TrEMBL record:
Annotated stretches, region: Disordered: 77-180
Ranges annotated as spanning the membrane: 589-612, 624-645, 666-693, 713-732, 744-766, 814-836
Record membrane topology: Multi-pass membrane protein
Protein name: ABC transporter ATP-binding protein
One Gene Ontology cellular component annotation held by this UniProt entry: membrane
UniProt domain FHA: residue ranges: 1-39, 194-244
ABC transporter domain ranges (all copies): 276-517
Location(s) in or outside the cell: Membrane
GO molecular function per UniProt: ABC-type transporter activity; ATP binding; ATP hydrolysis activity
Keywords: ATP-binding, Membrane, Nucleotide-binding, Phosphoprotein, Transmembrane, Transmembrane helix, Transport
Entry keyword annotation includes ATP-binding: yes
Length: 846
């Protein structure tokens, strides 16, 4: 353990590679320096000047070669290794203000048991010995320090002291951290530009993958003031939580906070103070209230707060507002009233910047299960990190996360081959890539057996001990003792209890959680919130926060909240296409089916007995030509729609999460359209190739003369496959569950059969004919019908002179029919985009 703020929590390791000692930097914030040069990995020898955090005055790690023999040398040199490892596995220090947990109030006499933490079976050595005591909330009488000007505390802000308590520091927040000191100082000089970025040539190097290589620069204006300018960064530069325009600039005063990646900067005189968010942030919610249309409150005045490194569990009966609370805390659906404070900064007001520090693991997995762990993380990293990160940098971060979550032995396995608990770890790993400080999980242990439940909860305990705040909504009560704080929601969306988990049952006066939940069920109208607010626990753990009056939420304008797009549109599209192709390629059965299905449909159509195929019979009419077209068109419709009908619904959770991290809606949709479009066009070619290939066709086509008549006939079938695929996407974005797609697919296909115009005459039927214009099969059969001259082959039996104008044997009509078919496809695209919006976090809808 090296006690220096410039040294990261996991900074570097020194290891013996069999030949020499090697120091490796683990993506530390302030870097590792050998002989004054920032390094990633380097061999070191006794006497090497190795500094952590700063090239000159950072803590020095030295190898001492006390003896001459090689063996003895190794033993000596092991010291730094032990040190580095120790640094990574330190339990959180006991706070000086540690309090004994209060005696349980109310009906039941206190039966407080010290928490019984099982030592972990494997992994997570960070298990705090007594986490509840170590992180017990500061009782109200502990004087709270007030935050700095924009909520960020700092030594230069004593003037911000406010009378009384509750002015911003949450109850339970450690007063130690309210007085946070800067991680580093940088001297600004007039006339000199200080450029910030990830690249080593910057004056101020921020080793953070969220930061662009050349991110922003500070420079002095001629009148002696300082200005920050964004250098077209991928993830944005923020002033007081608001994004600067790309390549925009702003004057900076002493009260302003500049945010770049995980670092924030503040000007003090001509000195720049840098605070690095290493994850250790306090977090609190104040008076959170959510009102839905009709005025009903589904979340009522929820207040709680926790210091850094806390693990908080939220439990409550079904419908008690847990998901609503999670959405309010993450900003997915901001509350109507109240505040969420992140390190004393208002999350809603500074959403654009702070949203990047939040990781959310939804209940369903957010990875494509067909991919291997490593491949899935690679695509996720590509989408989430700035475009200028190298594959090597991303790989290094993935390795780091895999190691941290003990997944490195599983990295080459497909996610489907992992156990439920391991799969959850992979979802957590994905969220950890960008080093969030706050991690929210929605029922991570649902569906897991008790052993895995414990495994996942211990994982979360470890994440919190490593310096993050973790909040988990759970149905499982078996492992609550691992948490620092427990929030119990009552029916109706109010707080029934907040405090140490081991005191909760006593608080309710029951022996088991089943009894508590039964009481919630049986006494739904009881004033659980009133009981909580009248308790000593409330005084101890929440009254402090509640003392500040509730505020209405005024969210910044939509464009100021949108997440930055770490990658450009084209790069996102390319990554999404590649990911989708990887997913398809990993499923050999699906690929085989994609070829077999159209082949079978094409072959089946050849069973229709017809002497003349698509040519006129000697007498003129040839009704079987219409039947052949009908079967081929319906086959293309089925194949196209079946390809896409489950595509969006099965990925909905992934889309929702990725959208919140900057995914472009149109790039996502376009990736589906391109890949599925190519597949269906290919399938259309197979159907048409077999279906028309084995038939007599007219001698002359309309477009290509006599040489490519079969292609001319197949093109409408291919385009029909494409448009049907787009219809399938509409169904996929419309439904709530994947099961509902099947009946809709069947309905779609049957309707297409009816409206081909091959079963009965559509032309001349007022209303029905116009309605048929909305059907892709109508236009596809019409286009092929112009080539085959369907008016002649399949005339109106009542009146052969009454021809269908859509089937006119003319090039112009072929073009119109094809144009209408493709226009329908494009219209479907617009509709899908609108429908996708409904499945996005509320803050992303624009
Ligand atoms: N947009 C909305 N409009 C109206 N009512 C809503 C809306 N969203 C949620 N509700 C209602 O609010 C209540 C709380 O819902 P929420 O999903 O937050 O509960 P929950 O505790 O997460 O439940 P579960 O454990 O079953 O997931 C429910 O009664 C739900 O029907």
């Amino acid at each position: 353990m090296i006690d220096d703020a410039r040294v990261s929590w996991r900074h570097a390791t020194v290891s013996w590679n069999g030949r020499s000692w090697v120091i490796e930097d683990h993506g530390s914030t302030n870097g590792t320096y050998v002989q004054g040069q920032r390094i990633h990995q380097m061999e070191i020898v006794p006497g090497s000047a190795v500094h952590l955090g700063n090239a000159t005055d950072g803590p020095r790690v030295s190898l001492t070669d006390a003896t001459a023999g090689a063996g003895a040398y190794s033993a000596q040199a092991a010291a730094p290794q032990a040190q580095a490892q120790q640094a990574a596995h330190q339990a959180p220090p006991q706070q000086p203000w540690q309090q004994q947990a209060p005696a349980a109030p109310q009906q039941v006499p206190p039966q407080h048991q010290p928490p019984q933490h099982q030592p972990p079976q494997q992994g997570w050595p960070h298990q705090a010995q007594q986490p509840h005591q170590a992180q017990a909330a500061a009782p109200p009488h502990v004087p709270h320090q007030q935050p700095g000007p924009a909520g960020r505390p700092g030594p230069a802000a004593p003037q911000a002291q406010a009378p009384g308590h509750g002015g911003g520091v949450p109850a339970g927040a450690s007063p130690v951290h309210a007085e946070r000191s800067p991680t580093t100082f940088h001297q600004l000089a007039l006339g000199r530009v200080m450029r910030i970025g990830r690249a080593l040539e910057n004056e101020l190097v921020v080793s953070d993958l969220q930061v662009s290589r050349h991110h922003a620069e500070f420079h002095a204006t001629p009148d002696g003031r300082f200005e920050i300018r964004d250098l077209g960064s991928h993830n944005g530069t923020y002033v007081n939580g608001q994004p600067l325009a790309k390549s925009g600039s702003a004057l900076i005063g002493p009260n302003d906070i500049v945010g770049v990646g995980h670092s924030t900067f503040r000007l003090v005189g001509d000195r720049l103070e840098e605070f690095v968010d290493t994850g250790e942030v306090s977090f609190s919610a104040r008076h959170l209230t959510v009102t839905v249309d009709g005025g009903k409150q589904i979340l009522k005045d929820v207040s709680f707060g926790v210091p850094e490194k806390s693990l908080v569990a939220v439990i409550g009966p079904s419908g008690s507002g847990k998901s609503t609370l999670l959405k309010a805390l993450t900003g997915y659906r901001p509350a109507n009233q109240g505040d969420v404070l992140y390190d004393n900064r208002n999350l809603y007001k500074q959403f654009a910047e702070l949203r990047q520090r939040i990781g959310l693991v939804p209940q369903d997995d957010i990875l494509h299960k067909e991919l291997t762990v490593r491949t899935a993380l690679r695509y996720a990293a590509k989408l989430r990190f700035p475009a200028d990160t190298t594959a090597q940098e991303r790989e290094a971060r993935i390795d780091e996360v895999l190691r941290e979550l003990k997944l490195d032995i599983h990295k080459t396995k497909k996610i489907t081959a992992l156990s439920g608990g391991q799969r959850k770890r992979v979802s957590v790993a994905l969220e950890l890539l960008t080093k969030p400080s706050l991690i929210f999980l929605d029922e991570p242990t649902s569906g897991l057996d008790p052993g895995m439940d414990r495994d996942v909860m211990q994982l979360l305990r470890g994440l919190a001990d490593d310096g993050r705040t973790v909040l988990v909504v759970t149905h499982s009560v078996a492992e609550l003792a691992l948490c620092d704080k427990l929030l119990v929601m009552a029916p109706g969306g109010s707080v029934a209890y907040f405090g140490p988990p081991e005191e909760a049952l006593n608080f309710f006066g029951y022996d088991t959680w089943a009894d508590v939940f039964s009481a919630f069920e049986n006494y739904r109208d009881y004033d659980w919130a009133g009981r909580w607010k009248g308790s000593q626990h409330y005084q101890m753990y929440a009254a402090d926060i509640d003392a500040v009056a509730a505020q209405s939420v005024q969210m910044p304008p939509a464009q100021a909240m949108r997440p930055p797009k770490p990658q450009g549109w084209g790069a996102q599209l390319w990554t999404l296409i590649r990911r989708y192709l990887s997913v398809i390629a990993s499923d050999k059965g699906f690929m085989a089916l994609m070829v077999i299905l159209p082949a079978v449909l094409g072959v089946v159509s050849t069973l229709i007995s017809s002497n003349y195929g698509l040519r006129p019979s000697p007498r003129g009419p040839n009704g079987s030509a219409a039947t052949i077209l009908l079967i081929l068109a319906v086959g293309a419709c089925f194949a196209g729609a079946a390809n896409s009908v489950r595509e969006l619904i099965k990925e909905r959770v992934i889309y929702e999460r990725e959208r919140a991290t900057g995914l472009s809606r149109s790039a996502y949709l376009m990736s589906k359209v391109i890949v599925l479009g190519l597949i269906t066009i290919l399938q259309g070619a197979i159907i048409g190739g077999i279906g028309f290939g084995m038939r007599e066709v007219p001698d002359e086509g309309l477009l290509f003369g006599s040489s490519l008549v079969r292609l001319e006939l197949s093109l409408p079938i291919m385009a029909l496959g494409f448009t049907a695929m787009m219809f399938g996407l509409i169904i996929s974005s419309l439904v709530k569950t994947a099961e509902k797609t099947m009946p809709l697919l069947v309905m779609f296909a049957i309707i297409q059969v009816v409206f081909t115009g091959c079963l009965f005459t559509l032309h001349g039927q007022v209303g029905v004919n116009e309605f048929s214009y909305l059907m892709p099969s109508r236009w596809a059969v019409a286009a092929a019908g112009t080539t085959a001259d369907l008016n002649r082959l399949f005339p109106n039996q009542d009146d052969p002179t009454d021809t269908d104008p859509l089937w006119d044997h003319e090039v112009g009509q072929w073009m119109v029919d094809m144009g209408a078919l493709l226009a329908l496809g494009a219209l479907c695209g617009v509709i899908v985009a609108r429908l996708l919006r409904r499945h996005e976090p509320e803050v992303m809808r624009k």
